[in-house]
């Protein structure tokens, strides 16, 4: 997904094993923490789905990545417009994902969101014309079987949980689409965008959209939808700011460590698939420990249905990652779900994202 250095440019030295290991740990930690923090925001009356206040802080973290990149890269108006369109799609996607989390709970979110890797492959096939092997299609089928188990298990948990599961499902697919479009922007010849710049512009556009929503909607309902629920939950202004800033910091950390992790972690897409599954498993365990029998209902607890669903989805994701890794080694190119780097000269085939 990141733009590789040009062949005639000196390549920067590779980071140490210790540095890469640290980035991997931070990537996993931030990925596990995000849905848990969203549940904390719900508990403290900060997660009204109409106001979307928490998403303002979420995208502030994404925009903040560019502050530490040290990049002075400039973009054309056309490229900026394309990046803004990708950001607009993801604004809707992430609003659905985290609104769904507040309804369905972090454990169901973890299962359904694990499908992002596979959605990437499907959209890469449709948008970029990338071919997939029988093993990859088999893995995709396994993932959707796991998601089907999740869907059936949520029916008995009430309409809100079902609605939340559907929101996360659609949001995950849309979020995966932005990955594919972003890859196209980063491999767009002379118009290619670096990962840090894309992240910064993308975050700034999304932050601006949510800030406008706060001005035109939330400000008129702030007392009723934010302050009164905070008061009922016993949440102080200082506590609210701490929670919202934590969401911002964790998303900044997740965005920053993502690109380093997928580029330098040994094993390519296989390792990334394992990490995605590991995140889902850790969210399951952490949610059960922190929230089961304390808040909400059985959607917060580690049940047999969720365990079966998780195992199926994670198995499918890892199968797909392995198949992709094998396919890539054979072809010396091809789409890797933005989970490993390829030389730009090997993937430029004229199929680019156009507006």
From TrEMBL:
One GO cellular-component annotation of the UniProt record comes to: membrane
Q: Where are the transmembrane segments?
A: 20-41, 53-70, 108-128, 137-155, 161-181, 193-213, 233-253, 274-296, 308-324
**InterPro entries in the record:** EmrE-like
> Which keywords fit this entry according to its UniProt record?
Membrane, Transmembrane, Transmembrane helix
Identify this protein by name: EamA domain-containing protein
Q: Could you tell me which species this protein originates from?
A: Thalassiosira oceanica (Marine diatom)
